[in-house]
Amino acid sequence: xxxxxxxxxxxxxxxxxxxxxxxxxxxxxxxxxxxxxxxxxxxxxxxxxxxxxxxxxxxxxxxxxxxxxxxxxxxxxxxxxxxxxxxxxxxxxxxxxxxxxxxxxxxxxxxxxxxxxxxxxxxxxxxxxxxxxxxxxxxxxxxxxxxxxxxxxxxxxxxxxxxxxxxxxxxxxxxxxxxxxxxxxxxxxxxxxxxxxxxxxxxxxxxxxxxxxxxxxxxxxxxxxxxxxxxxxxxxxxxxxxxxxxxxxxxxxxxxxxxxxxxxxxxxxxxxxxxxxxxxxxxxxxxxxxxxxxxxxxxxxxxxxxxxxxxxxxxxxxxxxxxxxx
Length: 326
What we know:
By secondary structure, this protein is α+β, with helices and mostly antiparallel strands. A hairpin with a 2-residue loop joins strand 4 (about 90-100) and strand 5. About 50% of the residues lie in helices and about 15% in strands. The chain has helices spanning about 5-10, 60-75, 80-85, 120-145, 155-175, 180-195, 235-250, 260-270, 275-300, 305-325; strands at about 15-25, 35-45, 50-55, 90-100, 100-105, 110-115, 145-150, 200, 215, 220. Helix 4 (about 120-145) packs antiparallel against helix 7 and helix 4 (about 120-145) packs parallel to helix 8. The N and C termini lie far apart (about 55 Å).
């Protein structure tokens, strides 16, 4: 409240309500270092929040929130994006001390969060394809801000994108007694073929899943930019988003659903043009490998985590590569 007039540019409201909504990471041993407490801020008489305050529980989380605040500030200052796009992302309001705590405060985005479907079918496929199309339109609108330009993939990028996560998955597969040597050989062969290829890299949101996207009036609104820019694979975000929709009704074979495969192909064509059939399967594979690496590390990177995660992810990799054959 002491920061209100100075930081938010207006007389503070006569009465506000602040509601604690969540503390992420509770119960997850290896994610606690990133957890945050969330508060929603309501004006008197309103049922819709106008601001969100994030309070980091650990030092590492504060660094991520500061990175997010800087990125949102850069978005807000980019004239190429326009007011329509900027209404789909949070407006940064304040980052710094509020009493004894550090807080990141940003405008709240109101919309409907997707609730996972559990049963497959034509109706579900149509709905999910429509949501993925809205998400793809949002990513296309972000591209002027996020594009890195044509880049020749280096050996270092191949190591970072493929070899390192494959090492992690290979260790997990061994712990889970899964034989995946042939699959890993094929992935490495395709990865090696990407060295020296020129691609239009794009800084990615990095956690572009249905839990971070809400929908309102035929558009999507996107939250949580703490991982923005860490990934540059041009198909990274759309794979994560499509997977977060289709995995519920279809499980590890989600990419085999015709509507899902068609969506992935369309996204690859939009992002890569004529190179789609050459590189897309490897790039989608990389995004899925990164998904496994993150989750495996969060769950302890031990034999228990390997047995819980490796079989499903290996089946998913096989299905993805089979349904998106070059």
